[in-house]
Write a structure and sequence with these properties.
binds ligand LP7C6HRI; single chain; binds potassium ion; Rossmann fold; alpha/beta; 2 domains; ATP binding; UDP-N-acetylmuramoyl-L-alanine:D-glutamate ligase; kinase activity
Length: about 525
């Protein structure tokens, strides 16, 4: 089975380091990188145009290497018959060396070419734009990873002009105005139809405003060796993105001689009088993803209610104190035998925040050696007790907070630096930290961070967190290490939401619809 490779997701600093090492250590000239980048971008532009000959392309170019990529693209599309208008803001003397070299090439071409299909415009003021012909495609080669502050004039006005055009826009490397490390808009930003990015995905394309502004993404391989990308990807702020092929490689396969216990037992501790839906969604998800035996332990007086909702999931009543929480000592008399037989534990969905229940949760987490998923009220029981995580997680725990739960646990954190924050806490707590959001991000104890590749706004509905927690525990119960289980659960759950949205849109989905689409997604996309 060929080794499936995850996609590196880099910061601007890491990308520059990759460029530098390729040029200085490998000896691949920057001019060659630019030529390859520009040619790759021209291929994407050609696919967007359908036919190139006779079509009109307007290319807005900055004075840095992003502009240089644009000059190469212009030359290639002109060679393929397009009518090309190149708009530059700066005199060639102010351009970067490689950009200037490519601009001079265009000047020579324009002087020698009698077709009249190549026009170079030096823009001193915006009035010049009105003389441009309407284009079939606009190319944003103004700024890329060199953007370092809110857009200055006249680039800012150019971006606004570009956003008013009717034709599609192709952004080179990153939409101008988008911060390539955070996905924040710095003053103004291009709203691209498509983005062709060089060498590797950039963090800013996947976070913040990136997904809304970059459109579809093409990654162009431009000659930077894979080992260089893998090494720079270890820098703070960088991450990885899983592919379907990698998830197919990680997902457990059911043995031909499996029986319900060998396929893995998941123990789900969940539910309360107030919340009888959460345990159903979590336990059902664990069974749906392939756990052979799912046992749901809930407060005794909730058991009859769950019994009407759950058929394939076994139920276990937990004794309660007269105050209404779970009775810690009596509960262990009931649970201990099952904790020995289970292969994975999920604590939290719908448990409620009764002080007795929270004490029971902390005692349970200190008591068990099982790989454990801690979600919702399981996390709330740990507020003020993060030392317990440091002491007991040891790589065996998956915490699945949403932003609010994470802030209650970790205190005030700057979540515009999601990657670094998840990296820092996963490492400090020694756990797998799955921070839900759009996109969700997974931190491993060794500092590796994953940005989820799937999912859509349909997931913004009650219960999807319970389903996700159930998918996590169901995968761990089948023997998948917690680190990979969290990445797989997100990827597969998001894929189910994508299939739902493709058929029914993003407004109508409810959490259990995810589970209805899961079998088809497992079969169609993940060969399970
Ligand atoms: N990834 C690769 O391997 C390759 C990428 N290439 C392209 O190179 C750019 C990065 O080029 P660089 O020259 O470093 O920066 P930019 O062209 O993005 O911009 C620099 C330019 O912009 C000015 N500037 C900075 N901030 C602002 C601002 N707030 N407002 C206005 N102007 C600003 C600054 O003064 C500079 O002059 C990368 O994105 C790729 O497209 C290589 O070509 C091939 C290898
Ligand atoms: K750009």
């Amino acid at each position: 089975m060929p080794e499936a490779l995850p996609e590196p997701v880099l910061t601007a600093r890491a990308m520059r380091e990759a460029d530098r090492r390729t040029i200085e250590e490998l000896g691949l000239p920057g001019r060659v990188l630019m030529e390859t980048a520009g040619r790759g971008a021209a291929d994407v532009a050609a696919r967007m145009l359908g036919t190139v000959a006779g079509r009109t392309v307007v290319c807005l170019c900055g004075r840095g290497n992003n502009g240089g990529d644009g000059f190469v693209l212009a030359r290639v599309l002109h060679a393929r018959g397009a009518r090309v208008h190149v708009v530059t803001l700066a005199d060639v003397s102010a351009m970067s060396d490689d950009a200037a070299a490519n601009y001079r090439l265009l000047e020579q071409l324009a002087a020698a070419d009698a077709s009249g299909r190549l026009h170079l415009h030096r823009l001193d003021a915006l009035v010049g734009l009105d003389h441009l012909p309407p284009a079939d495609l606009y190319v944003d080669a103004l700024l890329g990873t060199g953007l370092s502050s809110p857009l200055r004039s006249p680039i800012r006005e150019l971006v606004q002009w570009l956003n008013e055009r009717a034709a599609p826009v192709l952004a080179i490397d990153i939409p101008t105005g988008l911060d390539s490390d955070t996905g924040e808009v710095l003053g103004a930003a291009v709203a691209a139809t498509r983005t062709v990015t060089m060498g590797a995905l950039k963090v800013g394309l996947l976070l913040g405003e990136g997904p809304r502004l970059c459109g579809a993404i093409d990654v162009i391989e431009i000659g930077i060796p894979r080992h260089v990308l893998e090494q720079v990807a270890r820098q703070p702020g960088c991450a990885w993105r899983a592919t379907d092929a990698l998830i197919r490689q990680w997902l457990p396969r059911r043995a031909h001689d499996a029986h319900k216990y060998s396929a893995g037992m998941a123990l789900v501790v969940a539910g309360s009088r107030e919340f009888t839906g959460a345990p159903v969604m979590a336990a059902t998800a664990a069974a749906r993803i392939g756990a052979g035996y799912v046992l749901c332990a809930c407060p005794s007086d909730v058991r009859p209610i769950l019994a009407t909702k759950l058929t394939e999931v076994a139920l276990l009543g937990l004794p309660e104190t007269e105050r209404g929480g779970i009775d810690q000592e009596d509960a262990f008399d009931v649970l201990d035998g099952w904790l020995e037989r289970a292969r994975a534990l999920l604590v939290g969905p719908g448990l409620g925040r009764h002080p007795d229940t929270q004490r029971f949760v902390r005692a349970l987490l200190e008591r068990t050696q099982l790989p454990t998923v801690i979600d919702a009220d399981g996390l709330n029981a740990l507020v003020g007790f993060t030392d317990l995580i440091r002491e007991h997680a040891q790589g065996r725990w998956i915490l699945t907070p949403h932003t609010g739960e994470f802030r209650r646990l970790a205190g005030e954190v700057d979540l515009t630096r999601r990657i670094e924050v998840v990296q820092e806490y996963a490492r400090a707590w020694g756990c797998v930290l799955l921070l839900k959001g759009m996109p969700s991000v997974v931190g491993w104890p060794d500092g590796t961070v994953w940005i989820n590749a799937t999912g859509n706004p349909a997931l913004a509905t009650a219960g999807t967190g319970d389903v996700l927690a159930g998918l996590c525990v169901g995968l761990v119960a089948q023997g998948l290490p917690p680190a990979q289980a969290a990445v797989c659960a997100l990827h597969v759950g998001g894929a189910a939401a994508d299939r739902y949205a493709a058929h029914y849109g993003t407004a109508s989905m409810m959490a259990l619809d995810l589970l209805a689409h899961l079998p088809v997604v497992l079969r169609e996309r993940f060969d399970r």
